[in-house]
Amino acid sequence: AKTIAILTGGGDCPGLNAVIRGVVRAAVLQRGWRVLGIEDGFDGLVEGPRVRELDLAAISGILPRGGTILGTSNRGNPFAYPVKIGTETKLTDVSSRVLENFRKIGADALVAVGGDGTLKIARRLNDLGLPVVGVPKTIDNDLRGTDVTFGYNTAVGVVTEALDRLHTTAESHHRVMVVEVMGRDAGWIALESGIAGSADVILIPEIPFDIQRVCDAIARRRDGGNRFSIVVASEGAFPLGGGKTIQLSAEKNLGVERLGGIGRFVAAQIEGCLDMEVRVVVLGHVQRGGSPSPFDRILSSRFGVKAVELIEQGAFGKMVALQGRSVIAVDIDEAVGNLNLVDPHGELIRTAEALGIMTGR
Ligand code: F6P
């Protein structure tokens, strides 16, 4: 029998527990293997090791639970790990410690569930002789190699419900509601929830927006009798020629916070060009918390089961992925490095525009 280990790295999202459960059930129940859960992403292998046995009792009841029972880490890159030396903190390569700790726990392979960062680390560790299978994860849906990631469908559902609720209050008060949603680099959440939730304007990082045209669109609606509008903006959206600060912040997700977020920025601009009341709603981590949708529970379960199959086949350095209707294996390399962004001229954007949604241009 084999012993395998699993960790969850990077930002959490609904479905992580369903992946863990899928791995444990396929390994323990179907194959009689042992599964060890590493705590707090790669931190649990840099320190400690901090591991716990994942038997069937440990995963009982976790399918509908958001987050990750294993915990995740905000710092954990073992190739550049913050190590305190005296009063200073230095980024240090501690990958040898990870390899050593992995040998200590006696596992034959590792399932690494994570986004671009976690998968890059997993790929490097695999090259150093630690057999890894990856499971792609990002709420933003911006990983390549897979058609969609788990958690994303749940997030789109949360935002859509919020948009439905905001419609009734916006309409009652004749207001413009600017709703800032997640999506640091990619506009998927804004675009799909905007379509599902009947937004009037959708602003995404892939299409720098022209604020004057946004104002014109809202004014046209108002003059046509719709005295309210719903604007959905990805947190990474930025104005056309918006100057370095905003462009940089869109890339780094830093300056925007200093500016009070792109939602606040857009709201201030709209108030400046229209005589309408504007309110801002920043949905934030509500989009990442809570129970996964049925779609995400199924996708996560399939990913977990497939990851165990890949280990059984010795297909290391691979990642599970959804392509079309099938869960398959791709090289981790295919997924990392470049992001899966919205095509500004693709069918989805053209659909939004055909529906009369203003996309910032
Ligand atoms: O990349 C996923 C994401 O949710 C982004 O949309 C968002 O900018 C970021 O993570 C938030 O990160 P944190 O949880 O560290 O605040």
Structure commentary:
The structure is a single chain. The protein is of the alpha/beta class. It contains 13 helices and 13 strands. The chain has helices spanning 16-31, 43-46, 95-105, 116-127, 152-173, 188-196, 211-223, 243-252, 255-258, 261-273, 294-313, 332-335, 347-354; strands at residues 3-8, 34-38, 51-53, 81-85, 88-92, 109-114, 132-136, 175-181, 201-203, 229-234, 277-282, 318-323, 326-331. The strands form 3 sheets. A 7-stranded mixed beta sheet has the order 3-2-1-6-7-12-13, sandwiched between helices. Strands 9-10-8-11 form a 4-stranded parallel beta sheet, with helices on both faces. Helix 1 (16-31) crosses helix 11 (294-313), helix 5 (152-173) packs across helix 6 and helix 7 (211-223) crosses helix 10 (261-273). The model is unreliable at 247-258 (pLDDT under 50). Bound molecules: 6-O-phosphono-beta-D-fructofuranose.
Q: Uncertain spans, ≥5 residues at pLDDT below 50? A: 247-258
Percent strand equals 15-25%
Strand neighbour order, sheet with most strands: 3-2-1-6-7-12-13
The shape, in one word, is elongated
**What small molecules does the structure contain?**
6-O-phosphono-beta-D-fructofuranose
Structural class: alpha/beta
Give the SSE string.
EHEHEEEHEHEHEHEHEHHHEHEEHH
Major beta sheet, specifics? 7 strands, mixed
Please give the number of β-strands: 13
